[in-house]
Here is the input.
Amino acid sequence: MTILAFDWGLVIEKLILIAVVVFGSLGIALYTTFGERKVAAILQDRPGPNRAGPFGLLQPLADGIKLIMKEEIIPTAANKWLFILGPALAMTASLMTCAVIPWGSDIELFGRKIALQIADINIGILYVFAVVSMGVYGIMIGGWASNNKFSLMSSLRAASQAISYELAMGLALIALLMTTESLSLKTIVEQQIQGNWWNIVYQPLGFLLFFIAALAECNRTPFDLPEAENELNFGYHQEYSSMKLGFYLFAEYINMIMSSAIMASMYFGGYDLPFFDESTVAPNIAAMIGVGTLLIKIVLFVFLFMWIRWTIPRFRYDQLMNLGWKTMIPMALFNLLITGALILANL
Amino acid sequence: MQPLTNKAQAVSRDPMTFWERLYLINIIKGMLITFSHMFKKQPTTRYPEEKRAFSPVFRGLHVLNRDEEGRERCTACGLCAVACPAEAITMEAAEREVGEEHLYREEKYAAKYEINMLRCIFCGLCEEACPKDAIYLSETFAPANYTRKGFIYGKPDLLIPNPMTEASDLALARGVEA
Here is the structure.
């Protein structure tokens, strides 16, 4: 399929992969909202949603239909274009992250070797950081365009929180990158598969910092100040209704899934099934096992996110800033120094 | 003040230790507590499928009783209306005509009998006042309604099914209420 000196098979293969990953993440996000409610219920001795379909499994569809059917309200005082741009940007930014996540090892179909990764770029992690910091624009623009003081306050909180925690996140990651000597997520995962241990063994403190920062980046409890219900009336999406609100909510869940995927890839071996030699089975089956393994790891991380949400109360704003600047960043720097010293000493 | 129980505990005002200030250990402890709740029995009653039984002395919606032959027991004496502290009961009396002996037990009967379920406080004084065993409080409550008028229950709503002609309905009603 080489026309005009260009391999069109690659385009088709990537388009299919993009479609699968995007719609797959949307579908998973849909069911993550259901999972969130179920986990919350089970942790609080309640049955949770159980009316729509068997075990309430159709609940997310019912929620989706409800959101679409609701009236779209754009406040008269709102900036109309920015008001629409906000949720679109939030959604786009969170979906863009999935481009560099390696979902599994290569599969062979129709004599082609297909990488289960949309783009294996050599600056994978930098790309993730760039896109994640774009995500805050969605919240900022939404909060600003609503022309509502609570929304604006909330988006200011979100922006300052994102800036503070991105720093600690980046510093925690640099220590990891010093050991992997690569920014490509695929290479990092391959290294963990070939090496003896997952990166969590070498970087426990780094992982802890990264995880806490990821919670803050996803605006999850205990860092959900931007949407603090009791003080800011749901914050930046207060004026939103219908599917625009749905986009914000979905973006949050997709962010959660993507950060889980990145944590799994960076620290927990990505699509590596432990104690299993992938070379003993056919490459396609090995790839499928890999995809399944990564999905299980993602689900476990998402469960951890939810479990934390239904356990810990929200931080106060000054506590959040104290933790970010006075604890996380010094700890990350300390981690960086230790890692550097160990690399120098050739350990 | 004398402590009333031995449950009082002094609050520690000591500055937090390093491990306490880390919070991580206490967060993990808290998470283990929430995790343990995953395996606890849910106290939920799954309502439409599963109903919690009322107590045997529950005072619910009123019923107007009939005797074994299916005749209305109420003679419209008005004692229930007098006893009612919420003034929820009104009635109009009428005289039994010849040929209506199978409908009404006494020579006088209630042509109209209304209870306003929004006024009623379900105290059961009407039941106590009735000399004819005609009014009883059942074990159900008034279902929701769209209008206030819908809560004024007349004779058709209150009378129990006739044991002679609608025996199966009566058994059903008894079964649900019991």
